[in-house]
Amino acid sequence: RARAVGGAALLFTEATYVRADERGRLREMGAHDDHVIPGLRVLAGAVHAEGALLGVELVHAGRVAQTFVSGFQPVAPSPVPCEISGGEMPRELATQEIGEIVRSFADAARRCVEAGVDVISIHGAHGYLIHQFLSPRTNLRTDEYADPVRFLNEVLVAVRNAAPETPLFLRLSAFEGVEDGLDADATRALADRMRLDLVDVIDISAGSYEAGEWIVQPGEMPRG
């Protein structure tokens, strides 16, 4: 509400989890169950009352989630731990489980629409689950999801079907910022195969958990 009063036109919640078993932060907002709709409606109403719009950023944390937060072992495209978030070994997702996560994104989008949210953003950046499928250092699969864009495209289709009239943003890291990760050219090549026809705005960020200086730049970094 305070930021809306300050004159911002569009405000986003930070990463908002689509499944309770992958919550990444102790006080992270969730869109994982219908019981959150009334509270989300209150949030949207408070922002709208001050003349701004509300966007919700939907995310699955994947390998960077931690058991002590969610109560569940983290899951990922492949069992590649993230040392900077604790180094916990994630469980590799079974093929059928990936479809369940796609449906979770769609269900979360539906809840946002019911609550009066104005914009839905899919978080495909910063080393979260979608980014983990995109990156060759974290996607070592041999099934159909070895195709790095397949999971993202399925999420985009499902969310668009669940929220056909709501503006859809896609957040991407232009590069990962680590030696064995995606650089700008590789990300650009993947973008050619993404279902960007379903997306209204592409939100370009940078970095991953292992290169957090590109996500939240410290003061020592020169301005772009």
Tag the structure with descriptive keywords.
224 residues, alpha/beta, five-stranded parallel β-sheet, 7 helices
Strand order of the largest sheet: 1-2-5-6-7
- Give the overall silhouette: globular
The portion of residues forming beta strands comes to 15-25%
Q: Biggest β-sheet: count, sense, barrel?
A: 5 strands, parallel
- What structural class do helix, strand and pairing data support? alpha/beta
The percent of residues in helical segments reads: 25-40%
Q: What would you note in describing this structure?
A:
The model has no long low-confidence stretch (mean pLDDT 96). Strand 1, helix 2 and strand 2 form a beta-alpha-beta unit. Helices cover 30% and strands 16% of the residues. It has 224 residues and is of the alpha/beta class. The chain has 7 helices and 7 strands, in the order αβαβαββαβααβαβ. A 5-stranded parallel beta sheet has the order 1-2-5-6-7. It has a two-stranded parallel ribbon with strand order 3-4. Helix 4 runs parallel beside helix 6.
